[in-house]
Amino acid sequence: MFYRTAQGSPLPRDPLTAIVSPRPIAWITTRGGDGRINLSPYSFFNAVAYTPPQVIVASIGNKADREIGKDTFAQASETGVLCINIAGYEDRDALNASSAPFPAAVDEAAHLGLELAECETIDCPRLAHAPAALECRLTRTLDLEGEANRLMIARIEAIHLRDDCLDGDGRFDVTRFRPLTRLGYSDFGAITEVFRMPRPKLPD
């Protein structure tokens, strides 16, 4: 099968997110200037640099009760900070529930009974139980091609790691919490098995 994207997919559902998968999920907490807290998952997310450590998150679409973008984008743009929490398999129901289109005034974490803790370097809450949390400072936003497609670029200021997710060698062991990943359609995955392949060297 071949098709040009400008003409639309001939399949019953667009396969793009099934093709580009699995994708990590940024479960983002923000606090607006009015003190209201938001929690929402984003799967157009990835790490893009080591020094300084940076991540990108794409926000797609608008919300009727926001002047621009959705709650996360609006609050992060206002305050300049956000916290990216990493979700494990045990979080699957709460993460999915937090993606509902709640009104801007709703605190999803409180609604779902999720405990929050304050970040150390930014004025923002994080999920207290998260296997990892990245305290981030927004450095740039970009309007992408297409209606209401926006990119956030952020620098990681500090990292929280849950102690039980570290092995005896000091490695962050993802199999201890089985990170959730986003696939296509309504599909999710969880990492349960890893393997190592050393980076090859050129022959002498």
TrEMBL record:
Flavin reductase like domain location: 20-174
Protein name: Flavin reductase family protein
Lineage: Bacteria, Pseudomonadati, Pseudomonadota, Alphaproteobacteria, Rhodobacterales
SUPFAM superfamilies: FMN-binding split barrel
Pfam family name, one: Flavin_Reduct
GO MF annotations in UniProt: FMN binding; oxidoreductase activity, acting on the CH-NH group of donors, NAD or NADP as acceptor
